[in-house]
Amino acid sequence: MGLVITPLATPRRFNPLEQSLGASQKLGGRELVWRFDGGDITSDGGVLVLKKLEERMGIVRRFAACFSDYRKADQIEHPLLDLIMQRVFGLALGYEDLNDHDDLRRDPMLAVALGKDDVKGEQRRRAQDRGKALAGKSTLNRLELTAPDYDGSPRQKDSDKPETKKIVVDPESIDALLVDLFLEAHEPVPERIVLDLDATDDVLYGRQEGRFYHGYYRDYCYLPLYVFCGEHLLCARLRTSNIDASADSVEELEPLVARIRQRWPLVKIQLRGDAGFCREKLMAWGEREGIDYIFGLAQNPRLKKQIEAEMAQAEEQYRQTQAPVCSANSSMQPRTPGAVSGG
Predict the structure, then answer these.
(1) Which residues contact 327 (CB under 8 A, 6 or more apart)?
(2) How far apart (Å, rounded) are the C-alpha atoms in residues 79 and 62?
(3) What domains are there in the chain, each with its CATH number?
(4) Based on CB atoms within 10 Å of each CB, which residue in 57, 246, 264, 316 is the most buried?
(5) Rounded to whole angstroms, how far apart are CA atoms 329 and 343?
(6) Model pTM score
């Protein structure tokens, strides 16, 4: 036997707006009211938690101080702090792209989080902006595509064309802020800290500038460098992927370590990374600076044969110690099998 399904000539779709409700609906003595317009709603109520956190910590305000605003104050509706806060809160809510803000600019809850008096944007100067309390992608774009060397010149470089007033970031100030936030989060001063170096893939779609294929990740990507201490991010540097994983790591670590030692002169520092950072330049710098290090080694049959006994001994010692995961407050570090250490 088979099942025969005969399709309807006209599909039947339920539309509540077309249903006749007749008399007033009652339920337990209470009147039921049907509405389908939605009203002013948002799915981002958690942004109010971010607002309270910012009021308490002031991190976004300090981040905004790393920018210079060359726009004319009497001709703007969105101050620099509002733009920074809108972008940061958007990222925290999961909206990565600037295009997302063409919808988010209508979100009354986000406007409340930014402290806007006119949360629906009904009093905007231009009629086309009314109903949109926040900045759109074009305005926010000023934060992300202006070259750091822009000096506020009224004319475009090598041209008589007028230059659009822009917002310029100072990368060195942001680097210093990341380290300062880490230092301020620790009281008392730890005896030893571990700086974890890592490179990972940032996959690209389309033909972005600096696009290269990476054999390890098997995709077109960037290869950003990160430095963490525990859960604290101390450095994030975007790089192309046609380089070694350890490229520029010494140049990034030098000012970072100097700033840490300026505040904590007696703290012991250890570098940690995978085989991609086991490079002579980085290890030599660590030894000159009195910094311990532990890096992985790329495995191969010949090496494994030569250090077979040492690895067995190290694995047994590691099992016996059962040391906790390294953190900013760790006083001792286990030596990982298959790694090179020094300092």
Answers:
(1) 194, 230
(2) 15
(3) 47-169 (no CATH), 171-300+316-342 (3.30.420)
(4) 246
(5) 20
(6) 0.74
